Amino acid sequence: MTGRAVRWAAASGRFAVVIALTYLGLLAVTFFIGRVIPVDPVLAIVGDRAPEHVVQRVREELGLNQPLPTQFVRYVGKALQGDFGNSVLTSNPVWDDVKKTFPATLELATCGILIGAGLGVPLGVWAAVRRGGAADHAVRIMGLVGYSVPIFWLGLMALVLFYAKLGWVGGPGRIDVAYEYSVERVSGLLLLDAAIAGEWEAFRNAFSHLVLPASLLGYFSLAYISRMTRSFMLNELAQEYIVAARAKGLSETRIIWRHALRNAMVPLVTVIALSYAGLLEGSVLTETVFAWPGLGLYITNSLQNADMNAVLGGTIVVGTVFIALNLLSDLLYRLLDPRTRDTR
Amino acid sequence: MSMHLPTFTRRSLALAAAAAATLAAATLPLNAATPKDTLVVALAFDDIISLDPAEAFEISAGELMGNSYDRLLRYDVNDPSKLLPDLAMSWSVSADGKTYSFELRPGVKFASGNALSAEDVVFSLQRAVLLDKTPAFILTQFGLSKANVAERVKQTGPLTLTMETDKAYAPTLVYNCLTANVAAVIDKKLVLSKEAQKDGAGDLGAAWLKTNFAGSGPMKIREWRANEIVALERNDNYWGPKAKLGRVIYRHIKESATQRLLLEKGDADIARNLTPQDLDALAANKDIRTTATPKGTVYYFSLNQKNPALAKPEVREAFKWLVDYDAIGATLIKNIGVVHQNFLPIGLLGAAKDKPYKLDVAKAKALLAKAGYPNGFKVTIDMRTVQPVQGITEAIQQTLKRAGIELEILPGDGKQTLTKYRARTHDIYIGQWGADYWDPHTNADTFARNADNGDDAKSKPLAWRNAWDIPALTKLSDAAALERDGGKRARMYQDIQAEFRKSSPFVMLYQQTEVAAYRSNVSGVKIGPTSDSTYVYAVSKR
């Protein structure tokens, strides 16, 4: 085995151990917090009217009278075999619930980040280039509003204006009732499934429902991304190589887009990746206002009812998303910044 | 050096804006009205955990089952004291009061197409007792158990059956319990064909029926997508008048403001969880109507008798004089409740309408002084952070303060406060209780009965949760459940309520009114007094 292969194998091994420990730590913290919160998980299953013997029987059936470490080990053992248990609230296997709710969040979050990054980066560049001017102030105020105004209120106001008053967009929910059963759920991404099925009216309808909540999330992301872009760009534009580039007679467009932004993208990639991860975690307030059956709402409902199987399942998904996006941003670093590549 | 906006940036922003406008224009929403043959109901139904009548006990599930499952009897929603035939054409009780006989109507089919017979009814009742889940107590309170149900609930002919109770209960109590969802009739053949094995024995179809349907009612449950949608379809095999609409879709919409927007735009036909503020805002809209019904749900706050201060009779009474019922009635519960100071909701046999208490700080202070607390004391209240409970708690905090009682509010989530309440670790708890079936015993059993006040009691009604030890009142409540004369029974409950008003640690606040708002082209909307008596199959649209 060559030295490079050995190094690669060692690095992969270390990486796998780190990932495994990360998941284990995540599950352990979530599990033990879930067990010590002052909510009786049996209540969510049997309800307040249940006679005491029913409560005790269900507690035993769920193994909730076992010591916490025993319960945790049992859960991890089953999880390693792909059994994440059933949700007490939906009666479905948790994995089935995640397969239904995560695509809804994925669709919303992806559109949101495309808007957020697609507009946020150019606006941040614009603000940096026009530092101190009206454009800079406008972008910063817009960012401040997006960051400060409660998203719940903004969502309701947006619904009142764009849906109720102007009729420009569809209302809460992913699709109108009339199309509810016209699209077969293949991936769970309604737009994709409608396109696959050739149901273009359903596609239009689903998009009209998606555009407002996605824009809201996009605005929220844009506020942060534009501020960070501005900050990174100002940092780059103050570097000596920019002075040198100008002295060499390069055009301003080339200096800003080919050089300054290229370097600013290195930390910006992390910002965008983490923003995306944050959206994928599920924006429970947006999902509540827009009746969007996503992961955020699922995890929150489950937590409020101490439905720990569902909370843990959701935690695994969120953890995977963060790990995957961190990896992706690491890979993009290597592409964008040759100094981070291993040349040995 | 001047920094003009680079051409590329201007171009990219302009392109992004143009793309957004084009996409938006291309996806302008189609006509928002709901389909003609479909009723769309906006309802928060995140409480559903099962569709099995032997298991489900939540409000939303109750409504679904009320529309999709038949039972032996139903009560008349316009006059709940009247029992109506459902699957049973006739019924009677033996002279000794312990054997109930039923004759079923012939020719009934389940939605699956299977014929319905007495075998299915017997199976359904036996199954509920054998599975022994939360609602089973409604049947087991009559002495039915896993050991004896096969003997006590028997088929006596293709369309006849009997049910034996352990005592001669008031017949109306037994009949009303059989109108509850736990007594819904399920398709034995279908359910047993889906039976799974659990711990070496069949599960009686429990795993399958959690998320599926096996009934014979006017609607059939097509799909339940948790926290998203429930779809009902007309059951063309139904023995009675067919549902007016082909489909009913319940959309899970948690937020009242969102429900209101959907209703105003016509994307929902009925909105069920509107706050008083949203209802007020809709009052001027001529396209929207409302309907209101008193429910069998009462709101109260209760004093844990384990707290020495709250256990004093004078203190219990003082609290009842320290609530501004009029102000609460006029503001916080306007349109959604009426002040009510008894544990039996109006409409139930024997329900009292007395309202002896009003805000009287001087009287309360005198009582507190007599109890040894002339300067008041400190106490906490566990409160769910929902309206109007939160507003009422804050109002009570203000009036208690006037008598020197410092009330610290401990806000929490519903399940969190309930956990504490059930453990008897609260001082004061503010909550509500809904009737499980339309008979006074349902509430007397929890408010005015406490057979064992010990910490490890087998039964933990609300009286137990507040450590209220009441052997005399328990005996009276038991006797009322066995009184077969309706008039005498009503008087017994009046006496129980009189004693309760005077001496209980419960401060009864109001009886809930449920309001639904609906579009003017919709008719037949009526909210029932219990969760399973709101019949969407009777609704039509122009």
Compute the average pLDDT of chain A.
Answer: 88
Please count the beta strands of chain B (DSSP E, at least 2 residues each).
21
Query: What's the alpha carbon Rg of chain B, rounded to whole Å?
Result: 26 Å
Strand residue percentage of chain A: under 5%
Mean pLDDT of chain B: 93
Bin the strand percentage of chain B.
15-25%
Annotation field: number of helices of chain A: 14
The global form of chain B is globular
Per CATH, the architecture of the largest domain in chain A is Orthogonal Bundle
CATH secondary-structure class of the largest domain in chain A:
Mainly Alpha
Number of helices of chain B: 19
Per CATH, what is the topology of the largest domain in chain B?
Answer: Dipeptide-binding Protein, domain 3
**Portion in helices of chain A:** over 70%
Order of helices and strands of chain A: HHHHHHHHHHHHHH
What is the fold named in CATH at topology level of the largest domain in chain A? Answer: MetI-like fold
Give Rg of chain A in angstroms. 24 Å
The major β-sheet of chain B equals:
11 strands, mixed
Gap from first CA to last CA of chain A:
16 Å
